[in-house]
Design goal:
alpha+beta, eight-stranded mixed sheet, 21% strand, globular
């Protein structure tokens, strides 16, 4: 009797890394995002294709990121290339007035304001157009982007690292692979202007 009661009260299998799920990213409280950013001390990764919603929903995110970076936290933004065929195809599929390119431009403008802060980096890579991964040290938000849906209309999982090679590690490895293939947003913008 007790082992079954314990098993039902505590996650013990491979799903124990799942903290909470939401049917829509937009149903997750904004306070969850702020709490995760606030608690992180070593590693913040924003691998959403545009990351636009963060700047719009989190008051003074730029200030919070500046303070985090100055305290030694590594902050990385992996965003889609606004000029790539992948972006154009996804924009056509979404069919919304606020295009991916426009939402990416919002993030680029906000990152430009943080240009002088060591420890904040940005790269273009289009391999995550259908999957957003946000890392906060050993916690993570994962949003698989559904067909014809925008990010806020897609499901969301909150994960916490509990094991080697679990879900957390697999998503983290995916982002690291994309990061290694990415192009620095500052260099890419400079090349485009030249």
């Amino acid at each position: 009797m007790w082992p079954n009661a314990i098993r039902s009260a505590f996650a013990t299998g491979p799903d124990r890394e799942i903290v909470q799920v939401f049917p829509y990213r937009s149903t997750a409280p904004a306070s969850l995002w702020r709490s995760l950013v606030t608690k992180a001390q070593r590693d913040l990764v924003f691998a959403g294709y545009t990351n636009c919603f963060l700047w719009l929903e989190q008051a003074n995110l730029g200030g919070a990121l500046r303070r985090k970076a100055q305290a030694g936290c590594r902050i990385r933004f992996l965003i889609g290339d606004p000029d790539s065929p992948v972006t154009a195809a996804r924009e056509e599929e979404e069919g919304v007035p606020l295009t991916l390119s426009t939402r990416i431009a919002v993030t680029l403008a906000e990152l430009e304001k943080l240009r002088d802060v060591p420890g904040i980096e940005g790269r273009f890579e289009s391999g995550h157009v259908n999957l957003s991964v946000f890392r906060f040290d050993d916690e993570m938000i994962v949003t698989p982007i559904l067909a014809r849906r925008v990010g806020h209309d897609s499901p969301m999982m909150h994960l916490r690292r509990c094991q080697v090679d679990g879900m957390f590690d697999r998503f983290a490895a995916h982002v690291e692979e994309l990061w290694s293939r990415g192009r620095d947003t500052r260099e890419a913008r400079h090349d485009a202007q030249a």
